[in-house]
Amino acid sequence: xxxxDTARRxxxxxxxxxxxxxxxxxxxGGVVYLTCDASAQFRVPIMFRIIRPDSQPxxxxxWLWLDGYQLDDDGDAVERRSVFVARNGIRYVQIxxxxx
Length: 100
Hints:
about 35% strand
């Protein structure tokens, strides 16, 4: 990752952190920022667009499965994933429209 990419990612993380909240309900189409607060697998945080939250109980209090897409720095889908996360570790974000 070059210096430009690193600076761009830092700027993106700052904007996400400033606009994110832990209050919300996972909904289809929503974008969340997943860090190690959501699961240890997100030591390197990701943005994730929810296709659907699993409505079935996970068997572990406070945890749930989300189906969706991992997003790149431009907000484009790069990989479909199912992730198991702690509900109280999910950060809900608003992604600004960068397409102008």
